[in-house]
Amino acid sequence: MNKPSRHLAPAAHPVLLYSCLRALTTLLAAALLAAASASAQTDVTADASARPPRYETLPAVPPLPALAEQGHVEHEGARIWYGIVGHGSPVILLHGGRASSLTWGHQVRALVARKHRVILVDSRGHGRSTLGEQPLSYALMARDVAAVMDRLKLRRAAVAGWSDGAIVGLELSMRQPQRVSRLFAFGPNVNRRHIEAPLPSPVLPLIGPRLRADYEAIAPDPQGFMRLGDAVAAMQAKEPDYTDAQLAALRGPAIAIAAADHDEFITMRHFKYAAAAIPDARLLVLRKVSHFAPWQDPAGFDEAMLDFLNH
Q: Which of 76, 100, 124, 270 has its Cβ near the most Cβ atoms within 10 Å?
């Protein structure tokens, strides 16, 4: 019986086979890379959405740079500490209530880099300064700053203040306007108008322990933090209380009222009122930060501060 003939297919050419395998390998690698990238992007998006907004954070503060000079001024029953670093046009930094000059770690570096002589002052009862027996007041603390300026033979300087330090800067500008060239006042209130209860924030429970730790590290009496807190609370219960006439009479220094758009303590309505009540004052709004903007966004805060002080 005759069998049907069989026709064999020719063998694949080795070069063609290699090219096909290489193409398939490239396509497979690209697909795996795309899948990995998509997965990573999903993880990044998930991480970003899980992170709290900047105004609900409390980043660490770098230590102050080495000081070129420091000392104390005896004034009205207290010893007021000051420290100096850098060379150039003088800028006095005034910290907030219950805090100290340790809070300015970011800002000192930025100012020194821009050729400023930075004068740090620990307000009476705060940090390395003693409290004395007089009731704490913004007027008294402003006189302390003027006494430091006298000791340093500093006729006039720019001032940057944070919260209570900003109010001290306003007080100094009212009482001795010839001594302040420019005032960058971050987070002050000028009276009780438009002030409401503090906004809830996960940051607030963290503030007290940080300020207490700083106080205990440098204060002459490390056990005095509660006494300081009582003195500050008594002052803030009745001060500041500037009238519209007093604010309207504040002339001389160039003044910026710097406001955080998520400030826990001071409403934006109050900041706008204060800036409008002070002749020629500028309102500067810092975005996505709270009352602790110098820590939360040091680059943005420093840029706004330096832009105003160097204008």
A: 124
Written as six digits, the tokens of 27 are 């396509």
Residue 280's SS3 state is coil
Q: What is the DSSP string of 202-269?
A: TTHHHHHHHHHHHHHHH-SSTT-HHHHHHHHHHHHTT-----HHHHHT--SSEEEEEEETT-SSS-HH
pTM: 0.85
Distances (CA, A) of 305 to 133, 251, 256, 287, 288: 35, 20, 9, 14, 16
* Cβ atoms of residues 105 and 61 within 8 Å: yes
The pLDDT confidence band at residue 8, using thresholds 50, 70 and 90, is very low
Spatial contact of 129 and 81, defined as CB atoms under 8 Å apart: yes
The answer to whether residues 253 and 183 touch, using CB atoms and an 8 Å cutoff, is: yes
Type and span of the H or E element at 142? helix 138-151
pLDDT of residue 12: 43
Other C-beta atoms lying within 10 Å of the C-beta of residue 285: 14
Per-residue CA distances from 115 to 84, 106, 109, 112, 299 (Å): 13, 15, 10, 5, 17
Residue 48: pLDDT band by 50, 70, 90 thresholds? low
